[in-house]
Amino acid sequence: MQQDHMTVSPLVLQLAQPFCSLKGSRIPRMISMMRSSSSSSSSSSSSSPPPVPSCISPQRADEYRFERICSPAEWIESYHPGKLHPVELGDRFKNGQYRVIRKLGSGSFSTVWLAVVESNNFYVVLKIIAAGLHGELEIHQRLNSGPQCNGLQPHVVQLLDHFEHQGTNGLHCCLVFEVLGPSLSYMIEHLPKELQRPGATIYNQAFPLWMAKQIIKQLLLSLHALHGQGVAHGDLQYGNILFVVRGFDETHECNIAQDPEDLLATGKAHIVKRLDGKGDLWSPKYIIDDEPLLDFVDLSPSFSIKLADFGAAFNVSDPPKITVTPFAFRAPELVLGLPFDERIDLWSFGCLIFELLTGDSLFVVSSWGDPSMQRIDDDHLLQMSDTLGHLPPSMRTKWTTHSRYFDSNLQKIRTDVGNRPSMAMEKVAVFPGLKQRLFAATSAQAVSEVEAHDIVELVQSILQYDPEARPTTGQLLAHRWIASIN
């Protein structure tokens, strides 16, 4: 592990560009305002210092430390020992070599920032991971030292540097990456009007067909490069596929840096307040909404994407006991607790193909209302059975509640999940099959009958219950429909 005193990687130092200075004169005024507010609010509370928070995130509302903040950002309760490091605009890292100028994104186990390398004004992305987690760094080190590491560059986010940072919540692994743009999930909500698919609504937004096909091809190339190095991603989803930015290096800092006072005034930053009115040593003074670099995305036919966020990735030779794959993208072996390998990525890829082409999710699996995992799994397996056909006998025996929903002839007898009384048969819902849904979606986009059949055949070949039956990434690249995408 690199330590905080090491020099910047030569790859980071190779370029330089002009920039304008951050409007730092406004920051002290904003901080003073917040301290004044904090002081007045805490005067009525106990003057004793706050206790050290638990190293476990709260599970119940009565365990919360902070007033609720509803924004597209990290959960405020994740700031405690053993979890997120509090970052504020202008903070410097690695002995002052990196200065934070903009919030880009966040997750359950990290926050992501745009930073400037002070020695040459080069822009980088700084990902600060929750205390004690080093798995993502280990994966990148494996990828960068592998025999085919050069082949990864066009398809996978590039690690430029790494170091450790000691903060109030522990020792944090910090990763420095090349600058990339927003994710597919962010971009789909901010597409220019001319790129929005006709008839799309807020519930089924989709990229235009020509873009969807390019994303599918480039994502497959990413997986092919990754699996070739013996690594599985484990968390394939819209949020981890990022657009490449163009012309960003020449941009002046004053055009991209965030100003705390402006953010607070426009509601894009939120002052952090404890419920007991005390100050807090483990959280930032304000939470900033995620704001990726939307204005620098190239949406021309030459656009590119890269696969990012390897926090759930694993060596194929040593898979973990569990994964963090989103519910709706889980392969059946994950749902049923069976052994798994890199082929879980292929299942997720098949689900993504469907979503990219149709604008709809193949499976809608929700944890809303905090249902039990059994209910979530049952719901998912029922949808699989409707969409793809019955599970093979070897898997049905692992589905412990199978007899609750199907009789001995595999006829569905109920569809509601959990322990509620069975629904009447006439109310039992059946999801349309995969072929029916794909044909309906492709015909609406003027896809030829031949191409539609190729798409259906491709997706069906990927979404095989038996992992052994799924094609490899190399076989998929040779598929007629994939090969036709230029």
TrEMBL record:
Reactions that this protein is recorded to catalyse: L-seryl-[protein] + ATP = O-phospho-L-seryl-[protein] + ADP + H(+); L-threonyl-[protein] + ATP = O-phospho-L-threonyl-[protein] + ADP + H(+)
A single GO BP: regulation of mRNA processing
Keyword Kinase assigned: yes
EC number, UniProt record: 2.7.11.1
Region (Disordered): 34-58
Cross-referenced InterPro entries: Kinase-like_dom_sf (IPR011009), Prot_kinase_dom (IPR000719), Protein_kinase_ATP_BS (IPR017441), SRPK (IPR051334)
Domain Protein kinase: 98-482
Membrane is among the record's keywords: no
Binding residues for ATP: K127
Enzyme class: transferase
Superkingdom in the source lineage: Eukaryota
Keyword terms: ATP-binding, Kinase, Nucleotide-binding, Serine/threonine-protein kinase, Transferase
Signal peptide: none
GO molecular function: ATP binding; protein serine/threonine kinase activity
Record's compositionally biased regions (Low complexity): 34-47
Pfam families found in the cross-reference section: Pkinase (PF00069)
UniProt-recorded name of the protein: non-specific serine/threonine protein kinase
